[in-house]
Amino acid sequence: MRSASGASGAPGAASGDVRRVSLRRKGPMLVEGPVEVELEDGTVVSSDRFRVALCTCRRSRRYPWCDTSHRDRA
User: Fold this and answer.
1) Residue 10: what pLDDT?
2) Which of 39, 54, 59, 68 reaches 20 to 30 Å from 25, CA-CA?
3) In angstroms, what is the C-alpha Rg of the chain?
């Protein structure tokens, strides 16, 4: 479902600054890069990759980056 207001109305966001975020059930959040992520403690980590996978389950040993630890292990 798309928001009626859209992302372009966000304060301070120029049309070229809009990032696509893709959510996956039982998986990571995919974000078009490059990105900077501010952690709870104020630390900022960055990636210059064209797409990054952000961990949403907190099982990753490389948090906030996803390392596929969310997958069921047999």
Assistant:
1) 44
2) 39
3) 14
